[in-house]
């Protein structure tokens, strides 16, 4: 988390700088099946974030040493486009994207029925095209919709959501300024049907009570985003439009 | 990943060509449908999304303040790069930039640079000390054939709608980048022995060499490239150049219509 103090993030009436209430998330739009070259794909706009995910597979796992005899391996690549942030980022992997890719893969392995596809590999390509705080969560949401679009069996969808703390107040879904100047950030990957948690990270400073409020907000948001994900998948299979957004 | 070229596909393409037909029913000089959207990404200073048939690409423009090259103290710079990341298709794998992606970026770069549509001297802030660098990054998300034309279209559309973030660099107020021309690219692939416009992924797989032509506003040539194994005759080139003249005008109109 960035610095504390000086920057004011809450207005006198308790609302946030962008006008949201503390337990209000940014607007979410989702389209499924937008990349014709992929076996499954999704486009997610969450606030000003834009993420695209493509799924390839299940396919033979190469190189052979990554194969598992009893299940599929999930190969996630989370990547930020050079033009996705205010300062251009150099193309290629860095430590941050490697870590996010790893924990995202582990979260997805907990929902995908990997034992159905021994010795195979499922490629999950997450591309962040515009970043405005919370991209790892947007990436997880996109990956879940894309996996479903690819027809890969899962126990549940998985929804990426985050809550955090600004000016000693717990808020849902931090935006850029709140992320930079806030006191804590708690991203989660939630299985909306069962309420289980498959992805968890946190940094900053939270009391136990504050943590509990964050979880409550995240659960509420997960249900809302879940409805949008399901709607996107329904629309996808109502029209056979291959191109779209 | 090595792609296998099915003999059956080659034979089918040859047969279709004999009857002057194409695998998806188009005529020889017919392009797929194109949707162009600009200003679609928040953090890019200029951006474009191109859906070209089933091929999908994004292009984004970023600026930086840098020191000029010693031999050109008043000139800014332009760089265009393309990334063929694994998201773009089954055949793409992670790793350092492939020769294909380098060729793609450089061919698009040359078309824009050599058209002279950016006045490099206008990018000077303090001679010898500070100039603006323009970076166009192209992200291929779905390769279903003819990514070259889609990338070139996205790049010029993103550039033409770019806003220089002068406030962020403390050099005055934000202003639109001045771009004096709309160079566009037209690519031809030899399929079943003859050239066709805008090959799709099957035609590329079963086809042979390709030719990329970038034309500017007056129909002048700004960049040419022949890729892959094969030869062509001057008469064949004359024929496709004629087609390119008309097609590039249409593409430029499509870009210019975005600005109103």
Secondary-structure blueprint:
The complex is a heterodimer of chains A (about 240) and B (about 260).
Chain A: E1 28-32, E2 40-46, E3 49-60, E4 73-80, H1 95-109, E5 120-130, H2 135-149, E6 159-166, E7 169-172, H3 176-181, E8 184-190, E9 197-200, E10 203-204, H4 208-238
Parallel strand pairs in A: 4-5
Antiparallel strand pairs in A: 1-2, 2-3, 3-5, 6-7, 6-8, 8-9, 8-10
Helix pairs in contact in A: 2-4
Chain B: H1 7-18, E1 34-38, E2 46-52, E3 55-66, E4 77-83, H2 99-114, E5 124-126, E6 130-142, H3 147-160, E7 163-164, E8 175-176, E9 184-191, E10 194-197, H4 201-206, E11 210-215, E12 221-227, H5 234-259
Parallel strand pairs in B: 4-6
Antiparallel strand pairs in B: 1-2, 2-3, 3-6, 5-6, 7-8, 9-10, 9-11, 11-12
Helix pairs in contact in B: 2-3, 3-5
Task: Using brief descriptors, characterize the structure shown.
A: 245 residues, alpha+beta, 5-stranded mixed sheet, 28% strand, B: 260 residues, Ribosomal Protein S5, domain 2, 6-stranded mixed sheet, 5 helices, 28% helix
